Amino acid sequence: MASGQVTVRSAAGVVPAAVERTYELRLADDGFFPATFHANPGDTVDLVFLLEAPRFISVPELGIAERVHKETLELSLREPGEYDIICLDCDDPFVAVISVGHEK
Fold it and tell me: Cβ neighbours of residue 7 under 8 Å, at least 6 residues apart?
């Protein structure tokens, strides 16, 4: 679950302040759960992997390729966009997405 969001007010309106968010990521038979995460530009996201077996994970937009099992990856998300989290050695190439700057 994400930590609370902090906002600051400026002359231009309400601007979300950068926060640290923590998300737990699991792998089920049909893909990652949850499959979508949200963050704001400037946020730091800690992805806590809770996998039954080690898997090779890639976040190509950030140049990350790591074997993870029960580790935490810290991602600094400076730019808006979609960041794919890909399981490269799963039977199917499962993908979760961090959507930055598109928070509801």
Answer: 14, 15, 16, 17
Short-list 28, 24, 31, CA closest to 2: 24
Per-residue pLDDT tens digits for 35-84: 999 999 999 999 999 999 999 999 999 999 999 999 999 999 989 999 99
Distance CA 13, CA 46 (A): 28
What is the sign of the dihedral through the CA atoms of 74, 81, 88 and 90? positive
pTM of the entire predicted model: 0.78
Pick the CATH number of 7-100 from 3.40.630.20, 3.30.420.40, 2.60.40.420, 3.40.50.20: 2.60.40.420
Q: How far apart are CA 25 and CA 50, in angstroms?
A: 6
